[in-house]
Amino acid sequence: MATAILKVEGMSCDHCKQAVEGALNRVDGVKKAVVDLEEKTATVEYDEVKTAPPIMKEVVEDQGYDVTK
Fold this sequence. Notes:
- This is Copper chaperone CopZ.
- It comes from Salinithrix halophila.
- By secondary structure, the protein is of the alpha+beta class.
- Helices cover 32% and strands 33% of the residues.
- Strands 2-3-1-4 form a four-stranded antiparallel sheet, with helices on one face.
């Protein structure tokens, strides 16, 4: 398992948190995604064989948020 920390801009409420966590947790290979609204981050535990940060970035951006790192 690997861990990625994505910097996510545009989140401001619980709905945002749930949208990002839900989208990431549906990605094949993601074991667990947790969003920290204060830090504006999503910490993702994932299987490197099944997924990668660029895929996670795309999924978050599809929800309407910007991934800056």
